[in-house]
Design a protein that fits this description.
With 429 residues, this protein is an alpha/beta fold. The protein is built from 13 helices and 20 strands. The chain is 31% helix and 20% strand. The chain is globular, with a radius of gyration of 22 Å.
Length: 429
């Protein structure tokens, strides 16, 4: 049962897209299981840069089936723009399939997202205002419109009429102008016409691929600590980026998952509000941001940067049952100087080695830091572990020891070729 879940082990933006691309050529199917176009993946290959927000990065491999799973919320306009852009860059792509159970994001979702965020005042979450949260609210309230209904002309008109009447009342309560039905229906019917050939029931499709022992790669969005249940609530997303979300958002059972690859940066970043124990609000933090070009693929916002938090990473390894780590952006730390990593937290004068479950406590802890030797070398020419300088290998060894999780992949640059696979047995069986 050669199945692999690629999960963000931190707060997202860990370069999962590159890993999906690197490993996607070995998979018959790549399935995205959660989130919407509030997450971005950048893939650099063959001198071209591809930016994905909805489409699994594995689509760059002809012969690979790329599935948007039932756990996703899909903006039709954004998906079509992304598909057209990718086709312009590369004519030969894998097959795209969209789950009929995925939910559709509409303009009223985006409007309500921005209005609700503004209403929070000083307690803003830091949403991208892409309508993702309100779309998931509709899903939970059993009021959303699924892709299967969206591409059924008769059903779509009926559902949109009933939903829009309610949403317009909400918009008016916020002091916003209502949305005219005719214009919205006409615009989105055109999107539905283009997307109809891609929409299928995908649960059995994925289950059958697993049963045939095909290599199936499950691609997460965002990261562990943005998970609705397991993240730093309320500063989280509205879905389940953790490895367990692969079951919820695709229709496979837990025993169908063989390996879980946890992707983490060699340092830590997060976007938006919320606690960040190892944050560097100084020149070093800015240096990491500049060297790593730490700006959002979707929003362009500068990411908050800090030292590697091994307390959080340990927790993530357990929570996701991570079988192997992929440590990315190791090259970005070149020239930073002596490095520090958090191995524990200090709370009320005591050292605690684990992540507090109470969000209020997490906001109060201070990092217990250990200093490690830095390096000045350009790492991007390395092609095997032995090519890396001794301080880099010691840094990686320290991560393994602290998390009790082996490192399967080391990424030392954005290109496909700048990838060192150290433990292939932890990826595919």
């Amino acid at each position: 049962m050669p199945t692999l879940v690629i999960v963000g082990a931190q707060w997202g933006d860990e370069a999962k897209g590159k890993l999906v691309d690197v490993l996607g050529h070995e998979a018959q199917m790549v399935v995205r299981y959660a989130g919407g176009n509030n997450a971005g993946h950048t893939v650099i290959t063959g001198g071209q840069t591809f930016k994905f927000q909805l489409i699994p990065a594995g689509i760059l491999h002809p012969g690979t089936v790329a599935v948007l799973g039932s756990g996703m919320v899909v903006c039709p306009q954004g998906l079509l723009e992304e598909l057209d852009r990718t086709r312009e860059q590369r004519s030969e792509l894998g097959e795209l399939i969209i789950s009929s159970a995925a939910h559709v994001v509409f303009p009223y979702h985006r409007m309500l997202d921005a209005l609700e965020e503004d209403a929070r005042g000083e307690n803003r979450i830091g949403t991208t205002s892409r309508g993702i949260g309100p779309a998931y609210q509709d899903k939970v309230a059993r009021f959303g419109i699924r892709m299967g209904e969206f591409v059924d002309p008769t059903r779509f008109k009926q559902r949109l009429q009933e939903v829009l009447a309610y949403k317009n009342r909400l918009l008016e309560m916020f002091g916003s102008a209502p949305i005219a039905f005719d214009g919205l229906y006409e615009e989105y019917s055109k999107y539905a016409d283009r997307l109809r050939p891609f929409v299928r029931d995908t649960e059995v499709l994925v289950q059958n691929a697993v049963a045939r022992n095909e290599r199936v790669l499950f691609e997460g969005a965002q990261g562990t600590f943005l998970d609705l249940d397991s993240g730093t609530y309320p500063y989280v997303t509205s879905s389940h980026p953790v490895a367990g979300g692969a079951c919820l958002g695709t229709g496979i059972g837990p025993r169908a998952i063989q390996n879980v690859l946890g992707v983490c940066k060699a340092y830590t970043t997060r976007v938006g509000s919320g606690p960040f124990v190892t944050e560097l609000d100084d020149a070093i933090g800015q240096q990491i941001r500049d060297q790593g070009q730490e700006y959002g693929t979707v929003t362009g916002r500068g990411r908050r940067c800090g030292w590697l938090d091994l307390v959080a990473l340990r927790h993530s390894c357990r929570l996701n049952s991570i079988s192997g780590l992929a440590v990315t952006r190791v090259d970005i730390l070149s020239g930073i100087g002596p490095l520090q990593v958090a191995t524990g937290y200090r709370l009320d004068g005591e050292i605690i080695p684990t992540l507090p479950t109470n969000p209020a406590d997490l906001a109060r802890v201070e990092a217990e830091l250990v200093e490690l030797e830095g390096w000045n070398d350009d790492l991007r020419g390395a092609r095997k572990l032995e090519d890396l300088p001794t301080p880099v290998r010691k840094y990686l060894d320290f991560i393994e020891a602290q998390t009790q999780t082996p490192i399967a992949i080391v990424s030392i640059g954005p290109d496909r070729e700048e990838t060192i696979i150290t433990r292939p047995d932890l990826i595919w069986a």
